[in-house]
Amino acid sequence: MMSVNDKIDAPERPCDFCGAVNGLNRVENALGHILLCPLCMDDNNGNNDAHWRCLEGAAWSEQPAVQLAVWQALSKIDASWAREAAENIDLAPELCSGADAQSAVIHFDAHGAVLLAGDTVVLIKDLVVKGANFTAKRGTAVRGISLVVDNATHIEGRVEGQRIVILTEFVKRK
Description:
It is a single chain. Helix content is about 25%, strand content about 25%. It is an alpha+beta fold. It has 2 domains: about 5-105, no CATH class; about 105-174, Roll (SH3 type barrels), CATH 2.30.30. The strands form 5 sheets. A 3-stranded antiparallel β-sheet has the order 1-2-3. Strands 9-6-13 form a 3-stranded antiparallel β-sheet, with no helix packed on it. Strand 7 (about 125-130) and strand 8 form a beta hairpin.
């Protein structure tokens, strides 16, 4: 499960994928946290092979959280080099168990597309947010979602500054 925390003003290290130093976000996954720049967090950047080639080098990180995140990112890229790089990553046993725990439950959006941690989704219906006294409007983008590991119908995301649980039947993957 990857979840995005707030931006880091004084990063402790550069982006764990590409080495950028500006606008970093702290992202949590099953094995700890990593730091990602806005470009590495952007799912719409998937067609930018030149940028994503940085994952090949990041796979050699000594941090288990980074190795897991690289493996997950490579599995989202539809290119032969990415598939080959993902197959060649030698995940330690603790990483494999973290990856297996995350993939044990598969989350689908309202149209049947697979949802992954960190994806951006769009609400397809106005949703009354209980306990927060507001309505999340249809068309609202929810960036950097987290998957609820034990429930395939729930995801978590931030809407209007509030962290909320959203039913997958009311979202579509962007």
